[in-house]
């Protein structure tokens, strides 16, 4: 394919929504342009002249809309706000921001779980004043990490808010990268989930040895690492998905964004509340040996709530 023709054709679709229908039309038009270009070259036309003829024949998307079956999509996009197009430099910056965000959030969760595990291993109790002070200091540090994570992804936020988008050619490159990195994402999932399952092993073994405090501490430490791996893996993958799906917002995007916002609001209340219950239960009743069980139960409960909310959103999107 002639690079100039490919760039021109891709540019015709730059500010159009990223839908399967328009993607099909883009690829079809690219194939038609390539066939015409090769036909002209075979007929002895110079590359420059062939390029000009192809662009002249296929360069007006409005004239080709009916033939490509995208008239309605083109008309609907006509009133849409033009979104600035960016390239690989901004995309790589966005990916770095997503990775850093995942590390901050996952690291914050891990050090909280590790601090609680250490306190549980000591057996809790009011006699460990220095340990209590250390626990709350670490929680404060983790909260700081969470807050910072919200401000370290300006470029990624612009992509997710549909303020900027990738040009079609660069987007195709990241789609291919996404397909090639599926194994990496799957490995992260298996590792994180595996750690969550393995967290039960030392718990059972240590409880059999009547080491209840150590059992709770071991569970929290290993499970915390598993959660951190899942968060880093998920946020990094989400950053790549955001690039691939960048473009003018689609109607279903609004439903998904509202659902994500609602789940985020629920999580912002739910998890601090669970931590408060855990600390109150542990401190007031000296239940460090058993209070850790609250977290797996809370995790399952939140998963049920989040899954239900996504199911409702998918139903609304399907029946919209």
TrEMBL record:
Keywords: Membrane, Transmembrane, Transmembrane helix. The chain crosses the membrane at residues 103-122, 128-152, 185-206, 212-232, 263-284, 290-313. The lineage of its organism: Bacteria, Bacillati, Actinomycetota, Actinomycetes, Micrococcales. This is Uncharacterized protein. InterPro entries: MFS_trans_sf, Perm_prefix_1. It comes from the Bacteria. NCBIfam families: perm_prefix_1.
